[in-house]
Amino acid sequence: MSFIGISGMQYSGASLAHHRILLAEDSNVFTSMISTRLKELFGIEVEVCRSFQELEEAYDQSSDPVTLAISNINLPGAENGEALNYLIDFSVPTIVFTGTFHQQMRDELLSKEVVDYIIKDSVFAVDMLAESVCRFLTNHRHHVLIVDDSPTARALLTTRLKRYNFRVSTADSGAAALSILKANPDIGLMVTDYNMPDIDGFELTRRIRTSIGSHQLRIIGVSSSTDRLLSARFLKAGGNDFMLRPFIDEEFYCRVNQNLDTLMQIKQAHAHRAGEGKP
Q1: Coil/strand/helix, residue 274
Q2: Sequence-distant (≥ 6) Cβ neighbours of residue 169 within 8 angstroms
Q3: Which stretches within the chain are classed as H helix?
Q4: pLDDT tens string 31-88
Q5: Confidence at 222, pLDDT banded by 50, 70, 90
Q6: Residue 278 reports pLDDT greater than 70
């Protein structure tokens, strides 16, 4: 199967039909659209739950683990968000699909550590949902390295990335990062702090680029500094992107996705050229 998402994500690989996905939604229009789209794109047969009671029964009456849930915030029998809280309480990764949205709701959703939220406000909403589902189900193919001497910063980034289903390794210094990269050539993305005691982010990036190119490893630099020229220095050192702390969750995930999408496109292009016998 192959899939190209709205944002440019590309997936080619096996069917995703073996995943168990619950769809908690009472709108017949959206249940039909989502079910049809996920079936035709990924071979997934979603389990539709049109009320809170049906959601509880679907979860309780089967021993098969739920890979992912797609949930409206309000369902019959759960008009105050109980369905979402139910899924979160059972540690079910959840994408919220909602027609009601405002700043306070956004903050509440992120505090619950949902995988993503999609707003039903455009003709592309179902396609955006399909891409979000595909990303979650396939993000495990990406190995990400977090480099930061702060245990708190490492923990925060690790939690964010694992929420999206990435495989994550961490390093508390530049030297440790170099060792981990050598032992794990499958790492495709590194997120590194600038200010570290042994090797700063610039020097770490320069050393990496002597042997590992952007076609093998994407590097995002991060910093809490107010010096906006750090981004220019980092990019000139061989980095691919740069972000200032504190992060906006949606932007962070977008930038991670964009860099990994680029990496996958480069690898596919190289594989295609190799298949044609071109250097």
Answers
A1: helix
A2: 143, 144, 145, 146, 180, 184, 187
A3: 28-42, 52-60, 82-89, 103-111, 125-138, 151-163, 174-183, 201-209, 230-236, 249-275
A4: 999 999 999 999 999 999 999 999 999 999 898 999 999 999 999 999 999 999 999 9
A5: very high
A6: no
CA angle 90, 94, 99 (to 5 degrees): 130
Cβ-in-10-Å burial (0-12, 13-18, 19+) of 221 comes to buried
Q: What is the 3-state secondary structure (H, E, C) of 86-114?
A: HHHHCCCCEEEEECCCCHHHHHHHHHCCC
Distance between CA atoms of residues 174 and 135, nearest Å = 29
Rounded alpha-carbon distances, angstroms, from residue 87 to 55, 68, 110, 278: 9, 10, 14, 50
Rounded to the nearest 10 degrees, how much is the dihedral formed by the CA atoms of 84, 88, 93, 99?
20
Q: Where do we find the tokens 């977008």?
A: 254
Is the pTM here over 0.85, yes or no?
Answer: yes
3-state DSSP call for residue 23? strand
